[in-house]
Amino acid sequence: MKRKNKSTLLVCINCMIITLAILLLPLAFFETSIYVKRSANTFVGDEKYVEARAEAETVAAQHEGAVIEESVTERVNSKGVTTSMVTFTVKETVRRNGLDFLLHGVGHSEGMSGVGPANVMRLLLGSMAVSLVLLLCASYKTLELPRTDLPKTANRLYTAAGVFVLIAWFCVPAFVRAINYTFARQVDLLVGGHIQNDALLAQLNAFLYGGQAGDGLMEMLRGLTVKTNWAIWVAFAALFLLLWLTTRYVSLASITATCSAPITVYFVYGHNWLYTGLCLAVAALVVWCHRENIQRLLHGTEKKFKWHVNPTEGKDPPK
After folding, report:
1. What is the pTM of this model?
2. Which residues fall within 8 angstroms of residue 298, CB to CB, at 6 or more apart?
3. What are the two backbone dihedrals, phi and then psi, of residue 31, each rounded to the nearest 5 degrees?
4. Residue 61: what are its φ and ψ, rounded to 5°?
């Protein structure tokens, strides 16, 4: 029993290590405009075009992986003369991990109706840290005992650890949602002039451009696009395994996973309401089918998972 409990504890710790390792990977990719050069009365190939192109190439050379996009706009003025304007846009893909969100403080600011990704990341990491402490305290001097024979204090510590794992687990889709909300919805409103939020603009400038955007910040944000790394859902799976191991309630883990599926589908499939609605219907059906399990969980009578049951346990040995 002691060996199995040690193995379970090591698996729990490894789940946390895997989650932390993933959070240190690039979680968000921002394709951002770092330089825009408009050259009026310029035609492709003329002297002004060559000068403007050279300026854009100089800026692009200062940023690894930067690319130059070129667009030409022609029109005929009132005098019947064709004019042309060439626009050079230098774009760079900026990668940010969970630590970057914390250090740059991209969190909730005044005027925002949602919680920023930095705050969600703080809650996720804080919940994991508290869960680890509770897990270690519950395991202290109880590794020799089966889970059914644990003292009340240890059982309560394991349950509390499971609650904090559950909080961290829900923080994963909440973090993805916060990224999309802040860098898509809020940025679109700022660029379109529908809202004014100087605190958020300062955060975006520091986070994406190192505070060097200056007066061109709004123009840079105009073409901002964001994508999240699929690897973050591996952390989601690792926390699910951790939730199951800490509580040993298979029904709780199943219900929680099913209820979080609509949230995951909503973000993974590009806010597709059809898929999300189908997942909501399935989640409601699963919760209804587990209504007796939910009652037992609330009353503390739900059976916990066991790796195996000794068929001779509790019986007299054969004579």
Report:
1. 0.68
2. none
3. -90, 115
4. -70, -20
